[in-house]
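Intended use. Records like the one below are meant for learning the mapping from a protein sequence to its folded structure. Do not use them to infer anything beyond what is encoded.
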Amino acid sequence: MTKSSESEAATFGSLVKRNYLASLRRCFDFSGRSGLSEYWSYFVVYLCILVVAVSVDALLSLFVGRFRGFRAIVILFHMLPNLAILARRMHDIDRRAWFMLWPFVAANGLYQSGTPGPNRFGPEPVDLVGS
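Structure written out for the chain above:
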């Protein structure tokens, strides 16, 4: 690995970690907006944690029978942050949070860029990519 690619990897890793932790801290905040980088950083870390939990459950199932404890803990712990960040993503595309109940609208919010500039839900979120 070259020195610049190591630096970029460290920057990307710290960005993902910062966005994930920021999303957890805002788990009770259903107002405001969350940008694409914040959402995807959070979601990638959540999926990695979930994969590890499912793997540990599968390994434990070999010894103690059917076991789903770790994945249940991860899912329950992330339930509120998942709802909060998805609500803020809906706000970023200028939709009310209730639109997350409509799967096609919610799926659109996962890849669509937010409204440029301020909208009725607040100012444009600061995109941390590249900073």
